[in-house]
Amino acid sequence: MRDSVMLCDRSAMNSTAAQESITPEPTFAPSPRGSFAFKSLLGAFLVIIGALATGALWIAYQRALETRSWTEVPCVIVASQLLTERESPNSPISFRADVRYRYRFKEESHTGTRILRSEGPSTDRSKVEKLIAAHPAGSSSRCYVNPAHSDFAILEHASLAPLYSIWFPLLFVVGGAGMVISAIKTGFKKP
Which three-class secondary structure state does DSSP give residue 178? Predict the structure, then answer.
């Protein structure tokens, strides 16, 4: 009998030791509070970035659309040449179209220098050469004059493409808002 009690005790000890060695280590689980904060902050960040990009595209579209209501008048291109610039000895050479044209608006003569409303130098020489080729010196053209500022005229309208691209940053706004809403809903659930 003593032997059988000893056997029972040993088998019980062995099964307890086996259970202890099989039991997995506890794994790290993020706290619900940390998950709520991370998801909310990430969602808010995406909403802000998406809203800023959407705003920038909307402003670019509005500016391009505004010039389409400006007064169209005939003009004569008086000079058209390619200018090269280098801001510093280590910067690349950039090119700029120097186009000058004359036009009359409200019985006054003006000289314009802008092709587009917003322009600057480019490192792509062929792009600038195309602008110059489209407006050769001595040719007649049409320019668009800002009625509020008759000294401000352009030869070409900017693209309306920002409106066609506005959906992309709106995805960030919607996705970020979804993350914030999901975090708030999850945060109020009782565990």
Answer: helix
Instruction: Decide: pTM greater than 0.85.
Output: no
Do 19 and 174 touch, CB atoms closer than 8 A?
A: no
Q: Note the pLDDT tens digit of each residue in 126-147.
A: 888 898 899 999 999 999 999 9
Residue 60 is encoded by which pair of tokens?
A: 């670019």
CB-count exposure of residue 78 (10 Å: 0-12, 13-18, 19+): middle
Residues 129 and 135: their CA atoms lie apart, in Å, by 10
Backbone dihedral angles phi then psi of residue 116, each to the nearest 5 degrees: -115, 165
CB 111 within 8 A of CB 189: no
Pairing of strands 71-85, 94-105: antiparallel
Q: Using one digit for the tens of pLDDT, what is the confidence trace for 80-101?
A: 999 888 888 888 889 998 999 9
- The token pair at 96 is 């700029």
3-state class of 171 per DSSP? helix
| DSSP one-letter string for 108-151 | EEEEE--SSSS---BS-HHHHHHHHHHS-TT-EEEEEEETTEEE
What token pair was written down for 22?
């099989």
Sorted by where each begins, the domain ranges of the chain are 71-157
